[in-house]
Design goal:
Elements (H helix, E strand, L loop, with lengths): L6 E5 L3 H12 L5 E5 L3 H12 L10 E4 L10 E4 L15 H16 L6 E4 L4 H12 L6 E3 L3 H14 L7 E2 L2 E2 L7 E2 L5 E2 L2 E2 H7 L1 H4 L4 H19 L4 H15 L4 E10 L5 E12 L2 E5 L6 H20 L3
Parallel strand pairs: 1-2, 1-4, 2-3, 4-5, 5-6
Antiparallel strand pairs: 7-10, 8-9, 10-11, 12-13, 13-14
Helix pairs in contact: 1-9, 3-4, 5-8
């Protein structure tokens, strides 16, 4: 990445793409945002609306509508184009439409000399991330999906309400597919540094009513609950994207659970899963390979097999 301007392009200007831009602007994450959409007039309207935020933010972020040619000197291209899951289905049901979209988009972006980092947010995000990696030819460290970052945040929020404690004092990760086979790695969840499982064991009268399976189900189904109530999820995932982009541009070395292509990590290869990774200016600098329990190892392997089976269906 040779650009001195912190430039981000967002492909897809629906609820997720526009909310992502809004988060980036309000958090002063980058210097320039280019919105690229299937309908140029909508992209222009979104950019115009967002430009009117500037009088009320700490720094000015230049925002405009553009085309794939604007990706050539971008530091990061965020991929938000795609459909929402249909209630009663799964995110994997979107695979065919996403494949059709991105087998056209990625060559167009790469054809204009893009040499930065892709951040994928479209569903099914683990497979889209893998797809983008294959289509782009970039190193796996520079193709990142939002993965289970939002699911990990949902888990922390649920736990914070039950204990109660500030969600930022909860540390832990949801691993695997951003979908039905995901699971919380309970062996690594801590509250203020203290293992959550120890807290449950030491305080059965206070926390005996908490059921781990129920919390895992609520975490997994949170997106569907939002989808059924208002038709889309976009604020939470937009902030997750902003956190990923901020960590990259600021060279933060922050650990976030993202979709990453595995090559031996956790005993798996040639598959993309949500796992904690250290994010820097170069993308994924290193994986944080957790020492999982036997059950959790089995759950992660199963989640990988679910994703691999779906990938095989489209010959990836």
């Amino acid at each position: 990445m040779t650009s001195k301007t912190r430039k981000v392009a967002i492909v897809g200007v629906g609820f997720v793409g526009a909310s992502c831009a809004y988060s980036l602007i309000n958090q002063s994450v980058c210097d320039e945002i280019v919105l690229i959409g299937r309908t140029p007039d909508r992209a222009k309207a979104q950019a115009l609306d967002l430009s009117h935020c500037m009088d009320f933010t700490y720094t000015r972020t230049k925002i405009r509508a553009g085309t794939y040619s604007d990706c050539g000197d971008a530091d990061i291209v965020i991929l938000c184009a795609g459909a929402n899951p249909i209630p009663g289905g799964t995110r994997l049901d979107l695979l065919d439409s996403s494949y059709s979209i991105y087998k056209s988009i990625i060559p167009s972006i790469m054809g204009h000399g893009f040499d930065g980092i892709f951040v994928a947010a479209a569903n099914p995000v683990d497979i889209v991330t893998y797809m983008v990696w294959k289509l782009s030819g970039l190193p796996r460290s520079r193709v990142i999906g939002t993965g289970t970052s939002i699911d990990s945040s949902r888990l922390k929020t649920l736990l914070s309400e039950s204990l109660p404690v500030d969600p930022r004092s909860v540390n832990g990760y949801v691993l695997g597919e951003h979908g039905e086979s995901q699971f919380p790695a309970w062996s690594h969840v801590t509250i203020g540094g203290k293992p959550f499982l120890d807290i449950l064991a030491q305080h059965p009268q206070r926390f005996g009513h908490l059921k781990l399976d129920e919390i895992a189900d609520k975490t997994r189904n949170a997106g569907w609950e939002i989808l059924q109530g208002k038709g889309s999820t976009h604020y939470g995932i937009a902030n997750a994207i902003a956190a990923i982009v901020r960590s990259i541009l600021n060279d933060d070395y922050k650990v976030i659970a993202v979709s990453a292509i595995l090559d031996g990590e956790y005993g798996m290869s040639d598959v993309c899963l949500g796992v904690p990774a250290i994010l820097t200016r170069l993308g994924i600098a290193e994986f944080v390979e957790l020492n999982l329990s036997v059950k959790e190892q089995q759950q992660l392997a199963y989640s990988g097999s679910v994703i691999r089976k779906a990938m095989d269906a489209v010959n990836l």
